[in-house]
From TrEMBL:
<feature type="domain" description="Aldehyde dehydrogenase">
    <location>
        <begin position="16"/>
        <end position="473"/>
    </location>
</feature>
<dbReference type="InterPro" id="IPR051020">
    <property type="entry name" value="ALDH-related_metabolic_enz"/>
</dbReference>
<dbReference type="GO" id="GO:0008886">
    <property type="term" value="F:glyceraldehyde-3-phosphate dehydrogenase (NADP+) (non-phosphorylating) activity"/>
</dbReference>
<comment type="similarity">
    <text>Belongs to the aldehyde dehydrogenase family.</text>
</comment>
<dbReference type="InterPro" id="IPR016163">
    <property type="entry name" value="Ald_DH_C"/>
</dbReference>
<dbReference type="Pfam" id="PF00171">
    <property type="entry name" value="Aldedh"/>
</dbReference>
<dbReference type="InterPro" id="IPR016161">
    <property type="entry name" value="Ald_DH/histidinol_DH"/>
</dbReference>
<dbReference type="InterPro" id="IPR016162">
    <property type="entry name" value="Ald_DH_N"/>
</dbReference>
<keyword id="KW-0560">Oxidoreductase</keyword>
<protein>
    <submittedName>
        <fullName>Glyceraldehyde-3-phosphate dehydrogenase (NADP+)</fullName>
        <ecNumber>1.2.1.9</ecNumber>
    </submittedName>
</protein>
<dbReference type="InterPro" id="IPR015590">
    <property type="entry name" value="Aldehyde_DH_dom"/>
</dbReference>
Length: 482
């Protein structure tokens, strides 16, 4: 069957531009070529940055109501074309069509939340008279946009994570230049289409696909870029932090997420939630469940139920609504996961289900008895593999949960509120989900972690705060006390 290959354009300062140089985008399920995308040059990136700065200077006091209007129109466009967006996500990435539709829904919400938060970029009054001698002074602070934002996005949520960069930037009056993941650039370009259709002033948005080595470093180091917002791996994040220089940085760098299941938990709910949290998006999820610590009195019951439920997961054609799990993003990543699992098995781990690879497909896999020396015990697997541990008590579970260089999100299942609060106080993470797995998030909440999981917080309101600066205003009123 002949399939038409799409030739895409890149979005430079609000204008769709062709390129002599292109790179190929493949469907990871069957390695089918689906599109040719412009391979941007350094000159393209420089143009996008410079035009972003021009647009920002041209609209230094861009009215709030206009920003709200653009965001709502963009959300309307995505909603009107939601099946097209879902098919794009599923075609270029790993998600099933059902998961892709869910991501489109979230992206629409992210953009609409940003429109609402644009109304609430407020300051507050300051009591200057708290200082002796300042009785005649009165003032406040307000927040102002910082300029041009540079954003680098990953492949695993190719639409919503791009929306999490663009929408808060527009809501706060900033220009933004996005370099999307090279394996999944189509969703980002399609989101750019929504903002062009919404009437976003030219220059405020560029989507520049291409090589990280060629254009990514330029985006990070250019002095016009006032903030770098990056979602991706720890190694790349550390490199960007060293390159960026004196500018704002927001980074979400992944995790090795733990979930604790205590003996008083609702076992069925814990199993169902943890299976979903482990294997949604083929485990390619920064808050996906990787380690589960189960109190020893219920370990066998949980283990058996978890393995049985995992074995029921249907892996296959991601475009079928009946499929639970599609392929990984490419065969190389599947081979990496396979290698990590084999290393753990060599060191004494046991496999309870799964463990087989077929091209880019890797079965949902459950391991036990994984030694601390195994790579998979300490690093982020970013694949459909989960580790089960039996623990004596809550303190033991928390100690082991904290014993990694990550701290994004965690979950605990318990009916004991005191144990829940003990966990909240002692777990080294950015978010605790009580009676949910680590894989729970809404787009309005502050999102981020500690240690190797990143810097700062995302979530619409948190992103807007990062993308703005407070300016203090103080009046010295000479006749104030007449």
């Amino acid at each position: 069957m002949y399939t038409k290959i799409i030739t895409e354009k890149m979005l430079l300062a609000g204008v769709w531009v062709e390129s002599q140089r292109t790179f190929d985008v493949f469907d990871p399920q069957n390695n089918r070529l689906i599109a040719k995308v412009p391979l941007a040059t350094k000159d393209d990136m420089l143009f996008a940055i410079e035009k972003g700065q021009e647009a920002f200077k041209k609209h230094p006091f861009w009215p709030t109501h206009e920003r709200i209007s653009v965001l709502n129109k963009a959300a309307d466009y995505v909603e009107k074309n939601r099946e097209r967006y879902a098919n794009t996500i599923a075609s270029e990435g790993s998600k099933t069509i059902t998961e892709a539709r869910g991501e489109v829904k979230r992206a629409i919400q992210t953009i609409r939340i940003s429109a609402e938060e644009a109304r609430r970029i407020n300051g507050e009054t300051i009591n200057f008279d708290q200082k002796e001698g300042s009785e005649n002074r009165i003032g406040y602070y307000y927040r102002f946009p910082i300029g041009v934002i540079g954003a680098i996005t990953p492949f695993n949520d190719p639409l919503n994570l791009v929306a999490h960069k663009i929408a808060p930037a527009i809501a706060s009056g900033n220009a933004i230049v996005v370099k999307p993941a090279s394996v999944t650039p189509l969703s980002a370009l399609l989101l750019g289409e929504a903002f062009v259709h919404a009437g976003l002033p030219k220059g405020f948005l560029s989507i520049v696909p291409g090589s990280g080595k060629e254009i990514g470093e330029l985006l990070v180091t250019h002095p016009t870029i006032k903030m770098v917002s990056f979602t991706g791996g720890l190694e790349t994040g550390e490199k960007i932090a060293h390159q960026a220089g004196l500018k704002k940085i927001s980074m979400e760098l992944g995790s090795n997420s733990p979930v604790i299941v205590l003996e008083d938990a609702n076992l069925n709910e814990a199993v169902e939630s943890c299976v979903s949290g482990s294997f949604s998006a083929v485990g390619q999820n920064c808050i996906g469940v990787q380690r589960i610590f189960i109190e020893e009195s219920i370990y066998k019951s949980f283990r058996d139920a978890f393995v049985e439920r995992t074995s029921q997961m249907k892996t296959g054609d991601k475009m079928l609504e009946s499929t639970d799990m599609g392929p990984m993003i490419n065969e190389g990543e599947a081979k990496r996961v396979e290698g990590w699992v084999n290393e753990a098995l060599y060191k004494g781990a046991k496999i309870l289900t799964g463990g087989k690879r077929n091209g880019a497909f890797y079965e949902p896999t459950v391991l036990t008895d994984v030694p601390e020396t195994a790579v998979i015990a300490k690093e982020e697997i970013f694949g459909p593999v989960v580790l089960l541990y039996s623990v004596k008590n809550l303190k033991d579970a928390i100690k082991q949960s904290n014993d990694v260089n990550y701290g994004l999100q965690a979950g605990i299942f318990t009916k004991d509120i005191e144990k829940a609060f003990y966990t909240i106080k002692n777990m080294d993470v950015g978010g605790i989900m009580v009676n949910d797995s680590s894989d729970y998030r809404i787009d309005a909440m502050p999102f981020g972690g500690i240690k190797g999981s990143g810097l700062g917080r995302e979530g619409v309101r948190s992103s807007i705060e990062s993308m703005t600066e407070p300016k203090v205003v103080c009046f010295n009123l000479q006749d104030y006390q007449m």
